[in-house]
Amino acid sequence: MDFEPSDDQRLLVESVTRMLRDTYDFTRRKSYMALPEGYSPAVWSQFAELGLLGLPFAEEYGGFGGSAQEVMLVMQAFGRVLVLEPYFPTVVLGGAAVNLAGSAAQKQAILPAIAEGGLKLAFAHSERQARYDLTDVVTTAKRGGGWVLDGSKTVVSHGEAADKIVVSARTGGERYDEDGITLFLVDAGASGVARRGYVSRDDTRAADISLSNVSVSDADVLGEVGGGLPIIRRVIEAGIAATAGETVGAMEAMNEMTLEYAKTRVQFGQPIGSYQVVQHRLADMFMAQEQGRSMAMLATMSIDNPDDGARAHDIALAKVGVGQAGRYVSQSAVQVHGGIGMTEEYAVGHYFRRCMVIERLFGDPAYYLARLAAEVG
Amino acid sequence: MDLRFTPEERAFREEVRAFIRDNLPADTRDRMKLGHPPRKEDTIRWQRILNAKGWAALSWPKEWGGPGWSAIQRMIFLEENLMAPAPELLSFNITMIGPVLIQFGTDEQKRRFLPRAANLDDWWCQGFSEPGAGSDLASLKTSARPEGDHYVVNGQKIWTSTAHNADWCFVLVRTDPNARKRQEGISFLLVDMKTPGITVRPIVSIDGSHHLNEVFFDDVRVPMSMRVHAENKGWDVAKYLLGNERTGIARLGKSRERVHAAVAMAREVNFNGAPLIADETFRRRVAQLQVDTKALEITQYRVVSAYDKAKGAGRADPLSSVLKVKGTELLQAATELAVDVAGPLATPIWAQELEAMNEPDELMEAGSAGTASYLMLRAASIYGGTNEIQKNILTKAVLGL
User: Is the pLDDT of residue B351 over 70?
Assistant: First the structure.
């Protein structure tokens, strides 16, 4: 066992942190939000230059062969400044889907383009009626030359920005069946694809996507026909591990700004940080952060475990633990800040909202707790 | 970063588990499985078995009988020992006075006390708290007045766990009542419990057991050769003792064992016409404990692995306070679960009825012992620095407030 980052990992964190220091602060972030894309294309190019967009891909596909650990560390740095760019849907989710299920030709066509910054992906699985149920897919793909897709997907992170969309659809079976779900790579500009974009509570953009009579070829099938669910599960596990890291970064940032505020905000003639009731809240926030960090490490170090059951169990533990920690730290950070924490112009509320969004991404703590509960005994 | 145990670490765990399985006396195991605390003789016998194997003086250097394990190995051993469940090594001996003497003791003190502490030939107890000095330990008043080559000790200690079993006590005393700072007038003495003038009075705790004591010192003569470290430097020794490596402080194995016991009992008891284990609310409560256990387990690995990397040098990791707070919260939640599962069986004090029975009723016994364990472990967030004090430590050490 070893919990220290390697020298290479340390260097990676340093260079990412340096780049973010130059590109991100709360004011600049607001200006990125105001851009038509809802993020900064210039910053996206910097991600590409730094090699972040190819981080988890093999070198033969223009990547750096990084592991989930490196992704976690980068996401942690992103969480500290609330990065708006579509890294998560493109590199973590979409990239994982192609990496796990793609043919050599598909990988060659997509991964190097992502790494260079020329291609963005979205991962469109969730449907309005499904809530957190991964098998609840009613979008269909029917034979017709290649395949014809019909249906709709909801809250697709950066769905508008994507050049290609990874779409799940039923090629067989009934709603809730584990078999019969297939993944497709769909051109965002294909005829019949309509995207309705909006701002999500965390200031990032998302979209509802409708597919009406969308034709794709056999070459656009990702993985086996009908065998999409295991891939979707693994993509989501990678997403959970990555956003666990992001939550840790966000908790660190909230704890730092709350501590700073407690040192400087004077009430009753003293900094509020001199009051023990506030100090103990800060200590609890620190403990939640560290327990959350432990769980993010668990998620990260579990996702390559070939044992499906054990991996899913650890991911569920981590999802609950990180979600609860993030919620506690967010709520406490706003509480200790008092009125200023309630304002849109102050950063802490934005961290609060990002944690809230992550918490319910692919299932909230209650959902995963129920799953763990089913295993008890 | 690598979360997995190495093949060597896994093999080590197997070795420990097998040794405990083959050598833990059956009567000890049976008692403890039901949730009873080990008896004095259980603890002594088991520590001697471990010491004969070279596994008792966990963190001590090899020259003093330590096994030469890494912190991770020690943690694995402690987990397996608690999970067995086997009696814990006597912490006063192994994690308190042993390391203190190794760090501060004279050669004579080391030679005389360390081998006997490892083998539990001497049972040590800790004379720190006083009626007026609990969390505010530095306000202690027990005095030691020099007289020739002796100190004459007068005063009172309280909450002295197992003083009634103890052969020796390490005691914090005030040797300079006029010190500029309260911490600077304190010395650390080793006191033979058979010395005239010592009176031990039992305190029965809410679990009905006699574990705690008051210890009175009435003109107790202690040779100056029994002082550890310099006169008036006892606070440094106490700080070292309290901040010393706390690998085992989370007592995760104990929490796990209690949750297992609760789940086992939940298969046997009824809830609305079905076994309690089938109840969703119960299962979610267990699942939440599993989440909390896992988070703490990894935090503990982080502390332990950092300790090994630093070769044990440096100060106590402030994450130790996280282990203490979260570990005791978990321990209390786990014992609370077991009591809730027992339902009405948690209320009677069965001791005499159980003695009189020919066939043991395991459910009754587990219910009764589970309650004792629940009540006893309310102390976990009080001893060793209350959880509130731990948060003060975090506030200072980590937050810099």
Answer: no
First to last CA, chain B: 31
Q: Which of A105, A122, A128 is nearest to A156 (CA)?
A: A122
pTM: 0.93
Residue ranges, CATH 1.20.140.10, chain A: 230-375
C-alpha distances in Å from residue B387, one per residue of B8, B212, B380:
36, 20, 9
> What pLDDT shows up at residue B399?
85
Q: What tokens does A369 get?
A: 């707790």
**Structural contact between residues B224 and B233, judged by C-beta atoms closer than 8 angstroms:** no
Residue B105, in any domain of the structure: no
**Domain range A7-120, CATH class:** mainly alpha
Integer CA distances (angstroms), B335 to A215, B223, B331, B376, in order: 60, 44, 6, 10
Closest approach of chain B CAs to the CA of A362, in angstroms? 18
Helix (H, G, I), strand (E, B) or coil at A228: helix
B263 and B373 belong to one structural domain? yes
Residues B209 and B376: beta-carbon distance below 8 Å? yes
- Catalytic option among B80, B88, B130, B245: B245
Measured between alpha carbons, how far is A246 from B365 in angstroms, rounded to an integer? Answer: 48
What are the Cα distances from residue B216, in Å, to A82, B168, B205?
Answer: 61, 14, 19
Neighbours of B7 (CB within 10 A): 8
Considering only CA atoms, which of A106, A201, A206 is closest in space to residue A157?
A206
Q: How far apart are CA A177 and CA A133, in angstroms?
A: 11
Q: Give me the pLDDT at residue B72, please.
A: 87
Q: How far is residue B395's CA from residue B309's CA, in Å, rounded to a whole number?
A: 25
pLDDT, tens digit, 9 for 90 and up, residues A215-255: 999 999 999 999 999 999 999 999 999 999 999 999 999 99
Question: For chain B, what is the radius of gyration of the CA atoms?
Answer: 22
B129 and B266, same domain (yes or no): no
Complex prediction ipTM: 0.94
From chain B, which residues contact A within 8 Å (Cβ)?
1-6, 9, 72, 263, 266-267, 277, 280, 283-284, 286-288, 290-292, 294-299, 301-302, 305-306, 309, 319, 322, 325-326, 388, 390-392, 394-395, 398-399, 401
Q: Work out the angle at residue A167's Cα, subtended by the Cα atoms of residues A165 and A170, and round it to the nearest 5 degrees.
A: 165
Number of domains in chain B: 3
Q: Which residues pair with B233 in a beta bridge?
A: B186
Contact B170, B189 (CB under 8 A): yes
Please give the single-letter amino acid code of residue B125.
C
Contact residues on chain A for B2, CB-CB shorter than 8 A: 1-2, 301
